[in-house]
TrEMBL record:
Residues 59-71 have a biased composition (Polar residues). SMART domains: TIR. Coiled coil: none annotated. Keywords: Leucine-rich repeat, NAD, Repeat. GO terms for biological process: defense response; signal transduction. This is TIR domain-containing protein. Residues 72-86 have a biased composition (Low complexity).
Amino acid sequence: MNFIRGTVMAIVLLLQPIVLLFKLLFGRRAQDAPQQLQAINHSAIVPATVVADSEDGIKNSNNISQQSDATGSASSPSAPPAGSNSGDDDSISLPLPFAEYEVFLSFRGPDTRHQFTDILYRFLVRLKIRTFRDDDELRTGEGIWPNLVKAIGQSKIHVPVMSETYAHSKWCLMELSEMAKRRKQEKGHIILPIFYMTNPRDVRHQTGPYQSAFQQHDKDFDSGTVQEWRAALNEIGALKGWHVKSKDEQGAVSECVSDVVWSHLSKNDNFSDTDELVGIDDSVEAVVEKLSLDVGGAAMVGLHGLGGIGKTTIARAVYNKISARFDRRSFLENIRETQQQKDGGISLQKKLISNSMRIDYVAPINSVEEGRRIIQDRVSQFKVLIILDDVDESFKFEEILGNSGNFACGSRFIITSRNMKLLSTFNESRCKLYEVREMGPQLSLQLFCKYAFKTDSPPQDFTTLSEKIVTTAAGLPLTLKVVGSLLFREEKSIWEDKLSMLEKAPQKEVKERLKISYDALEYETKQIFLDVACFFIGMEMKIASYYWRDCKFHPVNSINILLQRSMLKIGDDNEFQMHDQMRDMGRAIVCEENIEEPWMRSRVWDDKEGTELLLNKKGSKQVKAVRADYHRSFLGGMKPGQFQNLPELRYFEAEFAEFSGDFNNLVPNLKWLRLHFHYNDGQEPTNFDMSNLVILDLKGSIFLTDDWGGWSQIKMAKKLKVLDLSHCTSLIKLPDFPKSGSLEMLNLSAEIRSFASFTSMELDIGNLWNLKVLNLKECALKRVTGGTIGMLKCLEELDLTNLQCNNWKQRVVDIGELPSLKVLKTIGVKHIPSYFESNTDDDEEEDDDDEVESEGEGIEKLPPSLKVLHTSFRVANLSELLELEELVVENCDFGLEIPPVGDDTNANSTAHMWWKVSKLKSLTLHKTKFIVVAGTAPSFDQLRLPSSLTTLNISNCPYLEWIPTLENLNNLTELTITKCSKVLEVRGIQGLTSLQSLVIDDRDDLIHLCGLADLMRLKTFEIKESAPLSREALLLNDDSDDVFTPKIILYHIDELQGN
């Protein structure tokens, strides 16, 4: 029956273009022919099953009979406007695929079809985003309108490309009006307007070319329809969007739009930690049992198994489950790779000390022995949980941490390794072993489907293929995730091809199976993947993107593709992360370029090989990137002769490097130069071509001085985007920045400056008009010159933490005028101390006050675009910062003003509705109190924090007497209230329905906590310096006004509930 139905449908569709062609030849005027032919091409010649290709991006669907009834399924479609030429008997209904569209593109064909819209469409298709590309010229009658309504309704994101003649098309205006309706009526619809070669003001007010369009519409359509169109233009024209002013901007804007679209769509695809942990509950319980948490002494468990089998995932799950039971904890990742780096053991020790002591440990550790003594003296006294992830033979437990028996009673260590024999030697052979085995068929299928279909099981028509592919993965979670991500939204024919390739890969060769995903990438995405695998793990994405853009790549698009395919991760600090199996595969691919001769490969990441390459003056035009360590050799510094065979070098990284001699433009293509710990031997580098230099990183070059000859070369770097001079503590004066104004990121942060820097260092911001990121953390400046911060209109991030500067107040007075500032940190900013200032010969007029005002006055008005704010000053316009997501207020004597709750009828309704409309997710108060807005006298119930909060941390606030009610914080997952001795009551606990972690400590008196029994998701509940509490007391019924008096030291909820 299905065969007959399909055959009939195919015949009908084949006949349809013949009928239309007949009408074209005999029933239409000649000038209408091109338009009709386009309509035929676009909609009539469609197979019975809509299949994806590189042009359309439409996915597999059921047959068209399931999708053609657009009119019946549309949600209240608007009728075509009165006065239009409706009722054409040859109208074509454009078929829609069974799967919903995600993006609806609305545009005027003659303006943008072959330019901006086509570029944007291809960017979206590359990301496998299902996009409806509408074109007003392809519509031949009103019968298409219900299908357009359905496409708009299905799409999560609407992108109107409003060009000069956009308003001349009734179709474009109908679509725009429908978008505006959906945005108001249905939650989740997003409109991202693009103003292409037209002024947004003309769109909003229907002036300029839009005025002439509406003069005609007033004649052709009824007033109600025209007014509806005007309202839609006014509303959508006022939204934030992109203004394309020239054709040169089309590619950059398209990439940016596709990135924003993907970020919106990927929010629904991201897995929480628990979503990824398929079938590991038994393993977690087995490891916890081996840890013997109720037994004294220190214990150790080793997890062993193949790479990519899930050892780290299980270790992290155990860590999350039991970490609350320990005084201190630390998770040390990628130990095998860290050990290979210079001073890798010391780096591990510093991280362990920082995590365990809850500080950023910055004091120098000169040797592994010294680090071990510090760990034994300061860390081992605590009951600790330490995870040592991915260790190999180079890791010596007792050399790094000392004797495990010296750690406090109850300490636990979890170690993961591929080498079972190695683990058995730890802890005097008393390390308990647990083998992580391959996943079984059912769990493997479930994990695979989460990435291939975003569900727990495959569709019926993909079941057999899915099971066969899962079999080839041999139960390895990494392979399942990578292959599943690769096949997401692909056609069945692609699945069959990949299955054939997987079946040919050796059963035990994980890299061969992972390489299938690499082989499916386009050229530039492959290059970006290899760059990250070899050099950029741990690197901030924003910085690396400057490098790739100058290589004519599209990093945003490529990174999104790598994220989709589980080949790359982005950390909390926006840094690149990569599974060690993926990293090793990428490096193996580069090694295979030339097995015997590293200098013939594109990338030389091993600093020993890089140093040898330079020492022997080897190289080739294939070499694009090199890492070296001059400390390892007797190279005598970075000399011109070492680079004579590296004409295509784009990236160079070296430590302990001198930099001198006549380079005679040997490296004309160099884009990124990293010289850490660079020092000057008295000679100047000359003819070092920096014309293509995009990034210069001299971080930590403590011997770098003002008379270094390289500064004169930097002035010629007209393309320089990033300059990092952080921790260059010997600098007394700053260099002259390129006058081209190209610089976008400037880092001058330093923990220690010389005395002279306090008295003479100045920062001239006059040529920094394109600056996006300015980091002056811990910096000491005599003054800032060249203008105010408010003139840096492109600025997005500004860090003034602990800045000492004489005229900082005058320079930030207009900071509220910055339109794009998203991150602002001003904690601890102040003037230069008077004992330094008295030694200056400063002819600039002095300020009356040397320190920050005690009331916390600092910046009168903050920009409403802020997303992150860390400050010690009064936040004067908090109710206006509706985009703010993270707020830290520390040492603010003035306090944090809480706008009282009001109603929409109040004249100041924005402030009074702040708690409802704010996007604030994280609020931290330290040595700061809540206060009410001056001139108001609200009741306690009228003081509320934003309902959007997920984290609330209030610590060390001795003068804090009250906390706003928490009853509306139903999204809060973490609540910490510590060292707040005057707070006697916390109200609204019962409303914290999402709370998972509750910490209250350092209390000797009674705390009233009503509603704990309602916290069904609570996992960790910690109260210190009190007596134990019975389980019965914790789980009492709290429906009445009974007061719950917790007196426990620490409980994990699973334990309290007897699980």
